[in-house]
């Protein structure tokens, strides 16, 4: 959860951020970094969702939470991140604020908290799902698709509920009071992730694969390691932001504005890394990506071949029209006018025919 109030307050009192006045060059650099991050988040997660929708191999129960996380990251990069970039530009005085602070703040805080918490909840649920798959594999295999859909509905219900409470506390009481509610929620999810990941890691270290189902067991083990890595990345990207908010607003520690914004960039970068991890670690994702690229390449080649073939046909038609045009009486008369000897020969031939 990001608080835009320091951005607005710093316009009135820059000394809050270590007494240094930010320059526009620094603002342009940071806004450029945020814009690039937003572009990469949208492109990577949109491609992930397209591949999951197109490929049947990816439409598995074990990939539902990955799809849900990609959706949350996509919404984060497409909706809330541009608003944050706008507020950062206002902070660095790159442009003037042309919005109602209350309406903008409610919109930003509500959606930002909802999508960020939806992504973090997906990582936490992912850890729990892998923990269940590792320690109770037979029970995990019997889970239906309906169970995963119910879990995702519960996930988003929690995200909407928490974001609503946080928004109401922020704008009608204080941001500190919202942190007293929000911090235990995030801390609980972090503890759940840590416990689940430690248990998964210990099980993977002592797990033995039988030769009867070796290939399938190796695939499940690889997927477990991949999702473990994704959840740990989410933990590492969230932890600095959580610590910074606690230090700044609950313990009243002075935080430099540059550090504040860099921690936000780190938190957003988690949404960029996830699609890269999927592409590098999930074989089904790699196959779907290669098939999609091959089909696009083939369709491009096919279109180029059709364009070349149509150009050749047009050239043939133009040559036929030119040859047909040369045989018309007007063209013949012009040729005779240009070539008098040919005209004289035809006149003489006509006289001979008349004599006969």
Number of strands: 0
Low-confidence stretches: 4-19, 331-338, 351-356
> How far apart lie the N and C ends?
109 Å
Structural class, by secondary structure, is mainly alpha
Largest sheet: none
Number of helices: 12
General description of the model:
The chain is globular. The chain has helices at residues 5-12, 24-54, 64-91, 101-135, 137-141, 145-172, 175-206, 214-250, 257-281, 283-326, 329-338, 340-355. Helix 3 packs antiparallel against helix 4 (101-135) and helix 8 (214-250) packs antiparallel against helix 9 (257-281). Mean pLDDT is 75; it is low at 4-19, 331-338 and 351-356. It has 356 residues and is an all-alpha fold.
Summarize the structure.
It contains twelve helices and no strands. By secondary structure, it is an all-alpha fold.
């Amino acid at each position: 959860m990001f608080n835009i109030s320091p951005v607005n307050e710093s316009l009135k009192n820059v000394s809050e951020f270590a007494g240094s006045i930010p320059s526009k060059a620094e603002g342009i650099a940071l806004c450029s970094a945020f814009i690039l991050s937003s572009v990469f988040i949208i492109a990577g997660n949109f491609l992930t969702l397209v591949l999951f929708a197109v490929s049947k191999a990816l439409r598995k129960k074990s990939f539902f939470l990955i799809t849900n996380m990609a959706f949350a990251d996509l919404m984060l990069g497409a909706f809330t991140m541009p608003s944050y970039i706008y507020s950062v530009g206002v902070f660095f005085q790159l442009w003037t604020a042309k919005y109602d602070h209350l309406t903008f703040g409610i919109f930003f805080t509500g959606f930002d908290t909802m999508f960020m918490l939806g992504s973090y909840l997906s990582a936490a649920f992912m850890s729990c799902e892998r923990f269940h798959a590792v320690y109770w594999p037979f029970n995990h295999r019997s889970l239906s698709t309906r169970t995963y859909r119910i879990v995702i509905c519960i996930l988003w219900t929690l995200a909407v509920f928490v974001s609503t409470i946080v928004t109401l506390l922020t704008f009608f009481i204080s941001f500190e009071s919202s942190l007293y509610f929000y911090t235990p929620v995030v801390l609980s999810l972090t503890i759940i992730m840590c416990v689940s990941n430690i248990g998964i890691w210990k099980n993977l270290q002592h797990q033995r694969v039988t030769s009867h189902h070796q290939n399938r067991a190796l695939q499940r083990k690889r997927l477990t390691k991949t999702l473990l890595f994704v959840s740990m990345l989410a933990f590492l990207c969230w932890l600095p932001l959580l610590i910074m908010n606690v230090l700044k607003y609950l313990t009243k520690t002075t935080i430099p504005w540059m550090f504040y914004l860099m921690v936000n960039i780190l938190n957003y970068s988690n949404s960029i890394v996830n699609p890269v991890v999927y592409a590098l670690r999930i074989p089904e994702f790699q196959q779907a990506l290669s098939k999609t690229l091959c089909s696009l390449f083939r369709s491009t080649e096919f279109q180029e071949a059709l364009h070349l073939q149509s150009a050749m046909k047009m050239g043939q038609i133009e040559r036929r029209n030119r040859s047909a045009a040369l045989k018309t009486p007007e063209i013949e008369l012009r040729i005779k006018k240009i070539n008098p000897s040919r005209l004289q020969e035809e006149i003489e031939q006509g006289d001979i025919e008349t004599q006969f």
